[in-house]
Design a protein that fits this description.
Strands 1, 2, 3, 4, 5 and 6 form a six-stranded mixed sheet that branches. It is built from five helices and six strands, in the order βββαβββαααα. It is α+β, with helices and mostly antiparallel strands and 186 residues long. The model has no long low-confidence stretch (mean pLDDT 90). The radius of gyration is 18 Å and the shape is globular.
């Protein structure tokens, strides 16, 4: 017996009375191939946090306003609280856990330029918004590798922070651009 398909051609599992239909999703998360079965209405943030136990992606407003849940979908920043997990089938997702560089000595992860800049510039306080800022800035620096201060402000305009006043975050954007150039990364 074959698994029935819904009107999109995706494999669907029809379950007993009142239970939600689930779908097979195949994707790459932080460089790791994953296969999972998820309900159609499961958000990407819930899928990452609850199904994959990647709790670095934070959920703030659940309306796509605050940016705390931002992850990279095929390199572009998206609000994972507004994205259904089934919609990322066949795509690549990078969370805050996947931003760090390759491992250094003794297996320790090397901070990305953005992470290092956040540390150097004291760009975080409570840290709740930090994963969303780091993923947003990581993508922003690919698009704009030599930002001005005004570019940096624009780059982070969609993310909210209740603690820092943003100045150190803007400084971190500019420092991350410097670090990226120094390391020869892009």
């Amino acid at each position: 017996m074959s698994i029935p398909k819904d009107n999109t051609g995706s494999p669907a599992v029809i379950v007993a009375d009142g239970a939600e239909r689930t779908y097979d999703v195949t994707l790459t998360v932080n460089g790791v191939h994953r296969v999972a079965r998820v309900p159609a209405r499961r958000t990407l943030s819930d899928f990452l946090r609850h199904d994959l136990q990647l709790t670095g992606t934070h959920v703030g407003c659940e309306h796509g306003v605050c940016g705390a849940c931002t992850v990279l979908l095929d390199g572009a920043p998206v609000r994972s609280c507004l994205t259904f997990a089934v919609s990322v089938d066949g795509h690549s997702v990078t969370t805050i856990e996947g931003i760090a560089g390759s491992t250094g000595g003794a297996g320790a992860a090397v901070l990305s330029p953005v992470q290092q800049a956040f540390r150097e510039c004291h760009a975080l306080q409570c840290g709740f918004c930090t994963p969303g800022f780091i993923t947003t800035i990581t993508a922003g620096l690919v698009e704009q590798p030599n930002p001005t201060r005004a570019d940096a402000v624009e780059m982070i305009a969609g993310n909210l922070c209740r603690c820092t006043g943003y100045q150190n975050i803007v400084d971190a954007v500019l420092r991350a651009a410097e670090l990226t150039r120094e390391r020869g990364e892009r």
